[in-house]
Amino acid sequence: MIYRPRASHRSVGAIASCLAAVALAACATSEPAGDESGSGGTTTGAGGTSAGGSTGTGGALGTGGVPGTGGTSSGGTNGVAGTIGTGERGGTNGAAGTNGSAGTNGAAGTIGAAGTNGAAGTNGAAGTIGAAGRGGTNGSAGTNGAAGTIGAAGRGGTNGAAGTNGAAGRGGTTGTAGTTGTGGSSISCTATLPSGGTAHTTTNAQGTADGLSWSLWTNGSAQTITTFSTPAFSASWTNAGDFLARLGMQWGSGKPYTSLGTVTADFAETKSGTAGGYSYIGIYGWSTNPCVEFYIVDDSYNKMPVNPGSDTSKGTATIDGGTYNLWLRNTTGTGGNRCGSSVTSWQQFYSIRQTARTCGQISVTAHFAAWANAGMTLGSVLEASILVEAGGGTGSIAFPTANVTAQ
Questions:
Q1: Interior/surface letters 296-328, b for 16+ CB within 10 angstroms, e for the rest
Q2: Whole-prediction pTM
Q3: Residue 163 has what DSSP assignment?
Q4: Alpha carbons 137 and 135: distance in angstroms, whole number
Q5: CA angle 166-171-174, nearest 5°?
Q6: Domain contains 374
């Protein structure tokens, strides 16, 4: 590539023990048994008159004992028979006293109704899967409702009705799986550059590293790109004019973008210093027929979203969890394009993320489709690379992850 002027800058209770002992005497510690026996008959009737008077009446019948309260009272004892009257001259015996009425049993105390068991608590709903591609964690199950306490049993009464079981808690609904995190779980946003590496200090050069193609171009003094044996690179510049360093895939003389398969890029970067009046960090490439230079910008040394200037807005697209501004720009130049030395004007396609990010996965094919929907159609794609472009200044950038794939 040669010099190209730029038109512009580019997360129960136990039933009382009394129940066990049916005999009332074991439970009624404070309740007396039936009263004592009925009293005996009254004293002997008076004797008859001397002329064979009337028969003396028997003593009054003894009354039965008072019924016991609570437990079954013992029956009243028989009344003592009346003493036979002393007859005078053939008086008849007094009638024997009849037995006292038996005491009626005390009414049995009723056992208190057993408490109903509390309904079992419904299990809590399971939680959603975690961000970044990790399954959401399961929600904790709800605790079972506490069982109702057994009603206290009344003394001497019949058993209370058994408490009914609480309704069984229903299982919580299954949590939905978490969506895959942006960029996939294989990207470490805190990774550091691998050791070693090969520095290339030049104004215009290209090569391969770990099966990917690297390139450096500047229209100023020599600058540096360092490549590694893994998909990673770093770059530095000092008082650069227009400086580009990139690593990615190339397709020779080009392939229609619809036949490339699914093109994606994983990246993670840290930057320092300055990059002049404009800078782009993201994806860069070219197509022929038509000649198009394209950018997907996820970060910049300048405030995001940057504006390439002198452009036509083509709307927005939501891709990889972010909103991108779409721009179409016409440019001219005498060098620096990949469409041939005879080409002096071409178009530039831009997708510029509204909020910057320094790590993630870029769905390159989704941007190709978004551009086509906006009337911006690529031709035969020559390359798609992870890029840093600086419009001056003195700075550096490290990409511990910089990988482009097509499947």
A1: bbbbbbbebbbebeebeebeebebbebebbbbb
A2: 0.57
A3: P
A4: 6
A5: 165
A6: yes
Using only C-alpha atoms, the chain has a radius of gyration, in whole angstroms, of: 52
Joined together, the tokens standing for residue 135 give 């399954």
Q: Which residue range(s) make up the domain with 230?
A: 198-406
- Is residue 106 situated within a structural domain? no
Please give the positions annotated as active site.
Answer: 293, 389
Classify residue 259: in a domain, yes or no: yes
Q: What is the CATH number of the domain that holds 253?
A: 2.60.120.180
Structural domains in the chain (count): 1
Strands 380-390 and 279-288: antiparallel
Please report which helix (H) or strand (E) contains residue 18, including its range. helix 17-20
Q: Which two tokens stand for residue 390?
A: 């600086």
How far apart are alpha carbons 245 and 345 in whole angstroms? 22
DSSP assigned state of 373: H
pLDDT tens per residue across span 292-329: 999 999 999 999 999 998 789 999 999 999 999 999 99
Residue 370: phi, psi to the nearest 5?
-65, -40
Q: What residues contact 287, with CB distance under 8 A and at least 6 apart?
A: 254, 257, 294, 378, 379, 380, 381, 382
229 burial via Cβ count (<10 Å: 0-12, 13-18, 19+) = exposed
In this predicted model, what pLDDT tens digit does every residue of 1-10 receive, in sequence order? 333 434 333 3
In a domain, 60, yes or no: no
Is there a cis peptide before residue 290, judged by omega within 30 degrees of 0? yes
